[in-house]
Amino acid sequence: MERTDPQEGAATPAGPAREATPGAEPAPDAKAAPGTEPAPDAKAAPGTEPAPGTEPAPGTEPAPGAEPASGAEPGAGKRRRPWVRRVRLTALVLVLLVVVPVLAVETALRVNYLGDPAEGTYTRDRDAMWLGHAWVDGRKKDADVTALARRLEGTGIRDLYVHSGPLEHDGTLPKSAYPRARWFIEAVHRELPGVRVQAFLGDVLANGGPDGLHLDRAATRAEVVRSAGQVLDTGYDGVHLDLEPLHSGDRDYLSLLDDLRALTRAEDARLSVAAHQIDPLPHLHSVAGLLADHPKWWSQQFFGQVARRVDQIAVMSYDTARPLESTYGGYVAQQTSLALEVTPPTTHLLMGLPFYHESNFSHWGHAETVAAAVRGARLGLSRTDPDRELFGVAPYIDFTATETNWREYREGWLRPTAS
Questions:
Q1: Does the pLDDT of residue 390 top 80, yes or no?
Q2: Could you give phi then psi for residue 372, rounded to 5 degrees?
Q3: In the beta sheet, which residues pair with residue 129?
Q4: What phi and psi, each to the nearest 5 degrees, are found at residue 248?
Q5: In which element (H, E) is residue 111 found?
Q6: Would you say 353 and 374 are in contact if contact means Cβ atoms under 8 Å apart?
Q7: What is the pLDDT of residue 126?
Q8: H helical segments located in 343-402
Q9: Distance set, CA 240 to CA 206, 271, 324 (Å)
Q10: Burial class of residue 332 (count of CB atoms within 10 Å of its CB; 0-12, 13-18, 19+)
Q11: Cβ–Cβ contacts within 10 Å for residue 209, how many?
């Protein structure tokens, strides 16, 4: 999910047609004598034409290159190539197996975007936001924190996930990665009382390959826990973990979360995670796994297992490949409902908002708008659990946010003031 911070320059898929017989061309004006008919079983001389109204005797064949008689079916005497039939049949099967289901899904998502959100489904003042690395590596100053506080004034943002890694592949975290963390934490607490600062830590998972973090190694998981304790000692209010690509059902990940939860509870700190999207169709992650090394979805069951082990779970509900704003909003509504169904009321659920603009196959900027995401989240909340208190949205990410992103967040999600 990381985008490149422009300030830092690093990252934070029948038969062949019959041909005329070679030979002399017919004489231009050669015709049968008027009134004559060909003898029975006789063949017309090359180049001759039957007299008007006459029909060839039974058993006769037209001369090579001759036009079929009036009334004959076009293509008579020709057979289709076998491979043509196979190609057409294959194309039909592909349409039935691919195009029709895709159209059906897009139509269903469009329908899911219809209707009006329930009254009161606005911010609960429990939103969060992902921040880039510049806040803790020395590039930001006091004036920047003051500007951030002014930007967040009147919003529901109460948690800041500030990028403080990445982790090394062995799970360790050099302190040189966040040299100004304590300054930033103290500045936020001063300028934004009540707002928590969590260390956003992540890495690319190896998933069986030679490079990346190996969750299957107990020593690596132990180092991740030690790194979490290290950032909490610095003064962070919590740990926000983002490991990708994380396969559904990963038992080693659940074991890591159990160990991290024990640590954060002992330190009176928060544990939060960035979560993959949930199967929009049953077992889609399994089907996608046959076609891709790293399917992007989790099963709903696995999502619930993760949600029960953390204080906050933030769905990365963007980069969906949806081509229309209405189908993207319907997708977010569906994701919100699926997540609410398995997230316990004691866990804080957040839906991600795309505070960036790209145009590629996985993210169409004209479709994945903040307005559509907010409306979709409200629709899902309205239909599934409109009174859920531990619910919010989470913009991703500060250094790519536009004024349009902020305006759509405020207009769509913040509680309207009484006139």
A1: yes
A2: -70, -40
A3: 160
A4: -60, 135
A5: helix 100-112
A6: yes
A7: 98
A8: 370-384
A9: 20, 6, 31
A10: buried
A11: 10
H helix or E strand, kind and range, residue 198: strand 196-204
Share the mean pLDDT of the chain. Answer: 84
Note whether 379 and 112 are within 8 A (CB).
yes
Q: Are residues 325 and 365 in contact, defined by beta-carbon separation less than 8 angstroms?
A: no
Euclidean distance between CA atoms 112 and 135, whole angstroms: 39
Tokens representing residue 319 in the block: 């980069």
- The pLDDT-based confidence of 212 (bands split at 50, 70, 90) is very high
pLDDT confidence of residue 94: 67
Rounded CA-CA distance 113/332 in Å is: 9
171 Cβ contact list (under 8 Å, min separation 6): 213, 219, 220, 221, 222, 223, 224, 226, 227
> ∠ at Cα 337 (334, 339), nearest 5°?
105
Which phi and psi angles does 181 have, rounded to 5°? Answer: -60, -45
Element at 306 (helix H, strand E): helix 300-307
Q: What is the pLDDT of residues 163-179, one digit of tens each?
A: 999 999 999 999 999 99
Q: Which residue has the higher pLDDT, 15 or 143?
A: 143
Global confidence as pTM:
0.77
Residues contacting residue 406 through CB under 8 Å, at least 6 positions apart: 151
Q: Is 331 left (phi over 0), alpha (psi -120 to 50) or beta?
A: alpha
pLDDT at 99 over 50: yes
Cβ atoms 165, 198 nearer than 8 A: no
φ, ψ of residue 209 in degrees (nearest 5): -85, 175
Question: What DSSP element (H or E) covers 290?
Answer: helix 284-291
Q: Is the pLDDT of residue 80 over 80?
A: no
**Residue 166, Ramachandran bin (φ over 0: left; ψ between -120 and 50: alpha; else beta):** beta
3 state SS of 204 = strand
Q: For the chain, count helices (H), then strands (E).
A: 11, 14
Both tokens of 291, joined, read: 């076609």
Residue type present at position 275: A
Average pLDDT over residues 249-257: 98
- Phi then psi for residue 351, to 5 deg, are -110, 125
Residue 1: pLDDT band with limits 50, 70, 90? low
